[in-house]
Amino acid sequence: MAVYSHSPAADLPPPKSEVGIVGWLKKNLFSTPVNSLLSVVALAFICWTLPKIAQWALIDADWFGTTAQDCSREGACWVFVIVRFNQFLFGFYPSSEYWRVVLAFSLVGFLIAWLLIEKTPKKGLVAFITVFIYPVIAYILFYGGVFGLPVIETHRWGGLMLTLILATIGMFCALPIGIILALGRRSSMPIAKSVSIIFIELWRGVPLITVLFMSSVMLPIFIPEEITIDKLLRAIIGIIFFESAYMAEVIRGGLQAIPRGQYEAAEALGLSYWKTMFFIILPQALKMVIPGIVNTFNALFMDTTLVLIIGLFDFLAVMQSAFADPKWPGFSVEGYIFVALVYWIACFSMSRYSQYLERKLHTGH
Fold first, then answer.
1. Which residues lie closer than 8 Å to 265 by C-beta, 6 or more apart?
2. For the chain, which domains are there?
3. Cβ atoms 179, 282 nearer than 8 A
4. What are the two backbone dihedrals, phi and then psi, of residue 77, each rounded to the nearest 5 degrees?
5. CA angle (5, 9, 10) in 5-degree steps
6. 91 forms bridges with which residues in the sheet?
7. In which region does residue 311 sit, left (phi positive, over 0), alpha (psi from -120 to 50) or beta (all else)?
8. Contact 263/276 with Cβ under 8 angstroms?
9. Which of 179, 182, 317, 319 is most buried, by CB atoms within 10 Å?
10. Among candidates 160, 210, 162, 182, which has minimal Cα distance to 292?
């Protein structure tokens, strides 16, 4: 009697034209005749411009020197950026106190890295230190006045340092306020809902540049003369309120995307409103709107350049002030390229980390 085997045959490997570099090119660049034409035109343009850009920015560029006369070649003059590098980073902060700024940012970088690395212990304690203790330490380091540190007034803060301070505080404070506003706007309590709607629509209906101008010029008119609010603090308050309104709408979109069954399941379990929100609804909603949150953070990071309108010299403003130096005429292209590169690195890094979070928290598989 013949014996037949019913074991399944081994899977055949995919065609070589569908995997690897060839497969990627076919899928992304040459999937249709129109896409193929556009890809060829784009590649031709890149091949035509890239060598010229590399020749100007790298090969023929001047990298070493101390004055504008050292830029004698036909390429870019990166000497301008290198000589003024500290000013671009720290603004008008005294050079003898740079170590305080470096220490403050190094400390927060260490704390954030500790929280982001999965296997590090004591994350709860580190989070408590980051949220409640580090801001006090950072203020002491930046401003001084205690422990023998000389006072550095906020009008001397500037450059990338000021940009990072504005963006970090704005991001840190806008997220929780936005969550509260989003919950208030979806609340069944008329007063909480009305207050949230009025706040959100008021701040979303006004340009940020107007908010900064009002916070700097108009706010002191409505407070007693004996009370003085620092210009930087006024700008930070305006930025927080403005960004929290946009953050609230982003989070509200995530809340509305949660199926009604999630709320009903929580009610069936006897969970209170706050337990339902913090343990069931908000974790799902925040996961869904990670791209929107990061997009808002990126917009905030770039919008900090508007503080120039109230006399604060952020990264871009310090760069533009350097263009007015008669000792360095005609180097604005190099300066703007350097600023654009720094902004791109920061925003691209946040974008890539958000994509990593999306993959890590993805539960649709």
1. 280
2. 156-361 (1.10.3720.10)
3. yes
4. -105, 85
5. 145
6. 157
7. left
8. yes
9. 182
10. 182
Q: How far apart are CA 355 and CA 227, in angstroms?
A: 45
Write the CA distances from 114 to 81, 151, 290, integer angstroms: 33, 31, 21
Rg (CA), the chain: 27
What length does the chain have?
365
Q: Side chain identity at 300, as an amino acid letter? A: L
Structure tokens at 347: 């925003």
> Using CA atoms, how far apart are residues 197 and 255, in angstroms rounded to an integer?
16
pLDDT digits (tens, 9 = 90+) for 261-320: 888 888 888 888 888 888 888 888 888 888 889 999 999 899 888 888 888 888 999 998
Read off the amino acid at residue 228.
T
Read off the pLDDT of residues 87-130 as tens digits, 9 standing for 90 and up: 999 989 999 999 999 999 999 999 998 988 888 888 889 999 99
Side chain identity at residue 123, one-letter code: K
Are the C-beta atoms of 77 and 68 separated by less than 8 Å?
Answer: yes
Contact (Cβ atoms closer than 8 angstroms) between residue 81 and residue 335: yes
**pTM for the whole structure:** 0.85
